[in-house]
């Protein structure tokens, strides 16, 4: 029982270190990695490279594939582009095996892990954000090695006649059937630990301890390649049809790779052994890391067996890399066919509807822990969609005012539905950014979340004010109360200026920043609008004093008050954008 708890604790420390390391890297370069992925997906070859770079940087194929699914979900990547990125992610994740093989079994981890953690903790006390994030990465890196070191110590050495080794040996001597059994074990192992990196660490440790041979360890690695696809498929359960197809494409690609590998398995393993000959004079550090204390006294078959054990970590890492690289080379020309298979497996939605912004932000919220910093900037895009809704609603108001003689009932109904969707989206965005604030974020991301939590309520109020204008314009359409005032040249010019002002605020959100010159320009626009609104209000009051108070006059003043609220919310958004600039100063 004690050994099992030690192994569990070691795996937990390893996984926690991997998580810290990945989060630190995302904070250092998350936005740049997103840009790399988006700018390098024009064709399948660029997609492979971008997937390799991003996964190699953040050391998490799960985060990359979930991010790919979110991009497809938001319509930022096509399914064909996504397949290329997923191929590259499979290759990028092989770096983990090399880290474990080279650093975990070639050096004494206790000599390097604690100093790395120490330097990392010192770096986290610096004020500069980059140093803090680098420190977090180093702490994660060190904890990863400590976890691996504890795992190596927790997994006991067993003699060939021990019951457990005898049990494994029984299932290891069944020829090709053993390969299939251990492949299935690899799938199951990855499903249980929910991390291909942890599964790889367990596999290499088992092989290094002599529990299983190289061939069966390689079979487990093949199973891990299938098991790791489950994460993206679970993440895609609430996503769009295209996103589900991207997730299933990951599964199809890996399964096809495993199928062809099974046909050439033993020849491929001979090739791996040829590429990594035995080191007949291993260093003392390597022997210590492998737990071999009596190497000099070993002779004949026993010495060869020890050398085989020493070579296993490197050979497994090479097998993992060569398998994924060969799989990409063989299947990259069949991306259109993989796309067709994925489309056949995942049928279109029966109602033919696309996923809404609300559904996309709910998807991001559900997978925030997996995507970390990368999800934040996708949430930013959904906030821009909310801004576009407000702009669309104000344009709808102007259109209704300008066309009093047309039957616009269907348009008013559409705008009403848009307003209801904006309410739900604003609530979902608020919850999303609150969740973001509870996660470990970089200083820039914390500022971005703070700014966004100020902007979202303003956008929601802006949508409400625009719909208030639409309902009042609808009254004019029904009863013609405001025809004279709403169709005057002065109000037409006023609404045109307001349209430019609201569009300016929406465009600033799209660009994620506003210069001081643009802010001053917006303040002048706001002042001009305020002056025109007051003049229109005075004119309306004067007309009512001369001709008597009418319901049309009162409604016109209410329209002007609603316009003032629209302008105020747009200005608040622009000022919040400037707030972020002050933070960065």
Instruction: Compute the number of structural domains.
Output: 2
Silhouette: elongated
- Give the SSE string: HHHHHHHHHHHHHHHHHHHHHHHHHH
Classify the secondary structure makeup into a structural class: mainly alpha
- Indicate the radius of gyration in whole angstroms: 31 Å
In which range does the helix fraction lie? Answer: over 70%
**N- and C-termini, Cα separation:** 56 Å
Tally of helical runs: 26
* Strand coverage percent: under 5%
Low-confidence stretches: 351-355, 580-585
Number of strands: 0
Main sheet: strands, sense, barrel: none
The average pLDDT value, as a whole number, equals: 76
Produce the secondary structure layout:
Elements: H1 2-39, H2 44-58, H3 61-73, H4 79-92, H5 95-106, H6 109-124, H7 129-154, H8 163-172, H9 176-193, H10 196-208, H11 214-227, H12 229-235, H13 241-263, H14 265-275, H15 284-290, H16 300-331, H17 335-345, H18 357-366, H19 368-371, H20 373-402, H21 409-437, H22 443-479, H23 483-486, H24 489-511, H25 516-547, H26 551-584
What would you say this structure looks like, in words?
With 585 residues, the chain is an all-alpha fold. The protein has 2 domains: 2-345, no CATH class; 357-584, Methane Monooxygenase Hydroxylase, Chain G, domain 1 (Up-down Bundle). It is 83% helix and 0% strand. It has 26 helices and no strands.
Summarize the structure.
The protein is an all-alpha fold. The protein has helices at residues 2-39, 44-58, 61-73, 79-92, 95-106, 109-124, 129-154, 163-172, 176-193, 196-208, 214-227, 229-235, 241-263, 265-275, 284-290, 300-331, 335-345, 357-366, 368-371, 373-402, 409-437, 443-479, 483-486, 489-511, 516-547, 551-584. Helix 10 runs antiparallel to helix 16 (300-331) and helix 11 runs parallel beside helix 16.
């Amino acid at each position: 029982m004690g050994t099992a708890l030690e192994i569990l604790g070691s795996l937990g420390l390893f996984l926690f270190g991997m998580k810290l390391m990945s989060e630190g890297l995302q904070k250092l370069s998350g936005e740049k990695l997103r840009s790399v992925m988006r700018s390098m997906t024009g064709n399948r070859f660029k997609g492979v490279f971008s997937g390799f770079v991003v996964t190699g940087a953040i050391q998490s194929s799960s985060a990359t594939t979930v991010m790919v699914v979110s991009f497809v979900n938001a319509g930022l990547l096509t399914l064909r582009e996504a397949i290329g990125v997923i191929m590259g992610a499979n290759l990028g994740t092989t770096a983990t095996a090399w880290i474990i093989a080279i650093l975990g079994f070639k050096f004494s981890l206790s000599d390097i892990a604690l100093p790395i953690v120490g330097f990392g903790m010192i770096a986290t006390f610096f004020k500069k954000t980059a140093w803090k994030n680098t420190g977090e990465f180093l702490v994660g890196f060190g904890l990863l090695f400590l976890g691996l070191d504890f795992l190596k110590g927790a997994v006991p050495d067993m003699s060939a006649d021990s019951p457990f080794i005898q049990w494994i040996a029984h299932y290891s001597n069944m020829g090709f059937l053993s390969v299939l059994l251990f492949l299935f074990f690899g799938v199951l192992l990855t499903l249980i630990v929910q991390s291909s990196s942890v599964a790889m660490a367990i596999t290499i440790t088992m092989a290094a301890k002599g529990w299983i041979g190289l061939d069966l360890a390689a079979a487990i690695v093949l199973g891990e390649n299938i098991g790791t696809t489950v994460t993206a498929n679970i993440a895609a359960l609430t996503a769009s049809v295209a996103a589900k197809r991207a997730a299933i494409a990951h599964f199809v690609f890996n399964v096809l790779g495993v199928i062809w590998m099974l046909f050439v398995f033993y020849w491929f393993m001979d090739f791996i052994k040829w590429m990594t000959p035995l080191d007949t004079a291993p260093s003392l550090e390597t022997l210590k890391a492998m737990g071999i204390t009596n190497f000099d006294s070993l002779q004949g078959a026993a010495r060869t067996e020890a050398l085989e054990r020493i070579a296993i970590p490197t050979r497994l890492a090479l097998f993992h890399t060569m398998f994924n690289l060969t799989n990409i080379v063989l299947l990259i020309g069949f991306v259109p066919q993989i796309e067709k298979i994925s489309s056949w497996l995942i049928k279109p939605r029966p109602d033919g509807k696309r996923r809404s912004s609300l559904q996309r932000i709910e998807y991001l919220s559900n997978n925030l822990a997996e995507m970390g910093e990368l999800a934040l900037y996708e949430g930013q895009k959904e906030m821009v969609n909310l801004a576009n809704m407000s702009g669309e609603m104000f344009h709808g108001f102007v259109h209704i005012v300008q066309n009093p003689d047309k039957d616009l009932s269907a348009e008013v109904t559409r705008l009403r539905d848009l307003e209801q969707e904006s309410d739900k989206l604003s609530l979902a965005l608020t919850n999303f950014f609150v969740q973001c604030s509870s996660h470990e974020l970089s200083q820039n991301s914390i500022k971005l979340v703070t700014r966004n939590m100020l902007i979202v309520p303003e956008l929601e109020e802006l949508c409400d004010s625009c719909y208030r204008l639409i309902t009042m314009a609808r009254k004019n359409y029904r009863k013609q109360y405001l025809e004279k005032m709403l169709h005057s040249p002065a109000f037409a010019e006023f609404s045109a200026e307001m349209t430019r002002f609201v569009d300016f605020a929406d465009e600033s959100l799209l660009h994620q920043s506003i210069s001081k010159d643009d802010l001053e320009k917006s303040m002048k626009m706001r002042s001009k609008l305020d002056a025109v609104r007051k003049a229109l209000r005075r004119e309306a009051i004067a007309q009512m004093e001369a001709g008597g108070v009418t319901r049309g006059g009162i409604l016109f003043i209410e329209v002007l008050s609603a316009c003032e609220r629209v302008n105020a919310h747009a200005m608040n958004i622009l000022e919040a954008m400037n707030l972020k600039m002050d933070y960065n100063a």
